[in-house]
Amino acid sequence: MLYEQIGEEVRNYIDQLTKPRGSLGRLEELAIEIAKMTGERFPRVTPPGVLVFAADHGIAKEGVSAYPQEVTTQMVLNFVRGGAAINVFSQQIGAIFAVVDVGVAVDVDEEGVINEKVAYGTKNFAHEQAMTKEEVERAVQAGYRQASAMIDRGIRCLIVGEMGIGNTTTASALLAAMSGRCVAELVGKGTGIHDEAIAHKRAVIERALMLHQPNASDPLDLLTKIGGLEIAAMAGAMLAAAERHVPILLDGFICTVAALIAQRLNEQVVHYMIAGHESVEPGHHVALQLLNKEPLVRLHMRLGEGSGAAVAFPIVHMAMAMLHMATFSSANVSTGSDHHE
Amino acid sequence: MLYEQIGEEVRNYIDQLTKPRGSLGRLEELAIEIAKMTGERFPRVTPPGVLVFAADHGIAKEGVSAYPQEVTTQMVLNFVRGGAAINVFSQQIGAIFAVVDVGVAVDVDEEGVINEKVAYGTKNFAHEQAMTKEEVERAVQAGYRQASAMIDRGIRCLIVGEMGIGNTTTASALLAAMSGRCVAELVGKGTGIHDEAIAHKRAVIERALMLHQPNASDPLDLLTKIGGLEIAAMAGAMLAAAERHVPILLDGFICTVAALIAQRLNEQVVHYMIAGHESVEPGHHVALQLLNKEPLVRLHMRLGEGSGAAVAFPIVHMAMAMLHMATFSSANVSTGSDHHE
Question: According to its UniProt record, which residues of this chain constitute the active site (chains A, B) (predicted)?
């Protein structure tokens, strides 16, 4: 599925550029990885696309978030009006931006919000299954469809973001199930809860896992029992990007958990993922390890929305620019002894 | 010298933006730091300026580099023709770019190269002093003058780069003297030498330090005995930026050693520095620790030219963009419990 041969050609070409071998470190690796993904010797990653999926979580009723549930809707409106972090960052990187309601708890009648609502939020998985298998499938398809539409509009790199009050709890439950790690290791303060609330959040997740006993390798079972609609949609979006050979720049904790779900839907999709950043949410480190991805930046962020990926995007862009440097022969620069091994 | 009050105002303002408190991590700190430096509530860092100083090093005669000395000149020509890594990165960040010959070993008659030549390279400090005190002063002044000229042209953030075959040896000697750390801890492969050559490079530096016994707190003594013309100029450029309240985004090992020299010329200049990246050159970590600066990115780079700072620049730019987000009240978003402590 990857263009290995073109990746190797790019690797050799990079050694002809006017710089010591390997001296651009991770940028060189990025250029090779993206050449393999896209099959292009001089890949383009602009314009990137930022696709934010919003949904509500029944688990929010357990008091696991620092914010009331209506903030999901309020932030969706903030997204279409351009006031959120992901808006200013998207603008900075010249991204095509869209926000998709895949399961907000109320009707959002606002121009600019793409309506793919599957349900008015998930059920509270502390007591019952989060959703039906059919809802999972519809959410995955909505994500797939919207990412495909963005790719049709010409994006060359996909950033998938999310908004959903309570979704670090959902993502933590999914990760605990998939990783087999203990909940206490994975759960942090989310967007800003305090120690007592963290203990409560952990207990809620532990009880839910006992109740549902999800199958760690079955993405449909995981999402049905303890999933989120936006997480399902994000996984679907990643499937579309991989299928179309478009690099996926991962955001934070929720997004990386969605990536693990996508991996369980199709193992190949992982080859199209680049880890944008590592957030301070403790589960994120574990999720990145499971994916075997090294983040580009660690900036102590924990916002979501796609913001960490957007901040990392210029590094990917720089790696593509690197390929347009002069070569030793074109610039008449002497090669060093590292070229004569 | 810093606008502390404005920094505190910006800190409070950031907590009103539509995101959980502290959730943009290092970006929030950057915005506050730059507000303190510039005295602006909504600071601009664009356009950045990239100022590359080139000079040769007599110590290169000791066979400490993977590249022959003529590469300094060849790369200066590559810079003005736009083929080097720093060119493609400068273009990407919309930087005003200039290259200054402050001590290349031959005459460089090429349009676009700013001539501030102080000497045809330094002397070989394995055997004699690198330069005279007067040459040090002229090089510092050249850097100061060129950075001032760029600031006059409107740059809002200064990146100082360098080119000089042999200059990791010079910088390692300076850092060993300033830090008191043993040479073996600081010296790595530079732009690409192998184990045997590293041992030789370390021995050359140790002997030079024994010979000259430079005064660790006297920047003139350090530069005279074991310095480099471009390192002196970089330090001078930093003095100009700090004086004009322009943030300095530090590049890699050589640049950070120049920053330590600048600090010894004027302690205040450190408050205007932001560490762009951490290179794989082992001395860079030590130099950043001495400056008490945490790098924005670690991408296994080791090129110099200002390239690491240029790659980090978009993160600084994002931090400024963040300040243009909506506030909770302007966007009608409910605040979370983290706002009611």
Answer: 305
Cross-strand bridge partners of residue A275? A250
Interface test with A, best of B71, B162, B299, B302 (most A CBs within 10 A): B299
CB contact under 8 A, B26 and A296: no
Tell me how close the Cα of A175 comes to any Cα of chain B, in angstroms: 21
CA–CA min distance A338, chain B (Å): 6
Give the ipTM of the model, two decimals please. Answer: 0.96
Nearest to A82 by CA among A90, A93, A94, A70: A90
CA distance B32 to B5: 10
Residues of A in contact with B77 (CB under 8 A): 331-332
Concatenated DSSP letters of A238-276? HHHHHHTT--EEE-SHHHHHHHHHHHHH-GGGGGGEEE-
Q: How many A/B residue pairs have CB atoms within 8 Å?
A: 205
Residues 6+ apart with CB under 8 A from B115: B101, B108
Sites in chain B below the pLDDT cut of 70? 190-191, 338-341
- Distances in Å between the alpha carbon of A323 and those of A26, B4, B46, B144, B208? 13, 43, 25, 33, 40
Among candidate residues B79, B77, B81, the one with its CA nearest the CA of residue B109: B77
Question: Distance between CA atoms of A7 and A184, rounded to whole angstroms?
Answer: 41
Is-catalytic flag, A110? no
Side-chain half-sphere of B99: how many Cα atoms within 13 Å? Answer: 31
Asked if B314 and A310 come within 8 Å (Cβ–Cβ), the reply is no
Q: Is A20 in contact with B314 (Cβ distance < 8 A)?
A: no
CA A23 distance to own-chain centroid: 28
- Asked whether residue A291 carries a pLDDT value surpassing 80, the answer given is yes
C-alpha to C-alpha distance for B296 and B306, rounded to whole angstroms: 14
B24, B279, B329: best to mutate for the A interface, most A CBs within 10 A: B24
Q: Provide the pLDDT for residue A191.
A: 67
For the CA atoms of B270, B271, B273, B279, the dihedral, rounded to the nearest 10 degrees, stands at 60
Nearest CB among A25, A310, A311 relative to B280 is that of A25
Cα R_g (chain A), whole angstroms: 20
Nearest to A104 by CA among A90, A92, A125, A118: A118
The single-letter DSSP state of residue A337 is G
* Alpha carbon of A85: minimum distance to chain B alpha carbons (Å): 6
Lowest mean pLDDT across A187-191, A237-241, A298-302:
A187-191
Q: Which of B14, B17, B18 is the best mutation test for A, with the most CBs of A within 10 A?
A: B18
Q: How confident is the model at residue A338 (pLDDT cuts 50, 70, 90)?
A: low
- Judged by CB atoms closer than 8 Å, whether chains meet at B71 and A333 is answered as yes
Q: Which residues of A touch B79 (CB under 8 A)?
A: none
Using CA coordinates, name the residue in chain B closest to A87. Answer: B325
- CB–CB of A139/A233 below 8 Å? yes
Position A190 scores a pLDDT of 66
Q: For residues A251-287, b (16+ Cβ closer than 10 Å) or e, as one string?
A: bbbbbbbbbbbbbbbeeebbebbbbbbbbbbbbbbbb
Query: Is A318's CB within 8 Å of B92's CB?
Result: yes
| Contact across the interface for B322 and A19, Cβ inside 8 Å | no
Please report the domains of chain B, with CATH numbers, ordered by start residue.
1-43+323-341 (1.10.1610.10), 48-317 (3.40.50.10210)
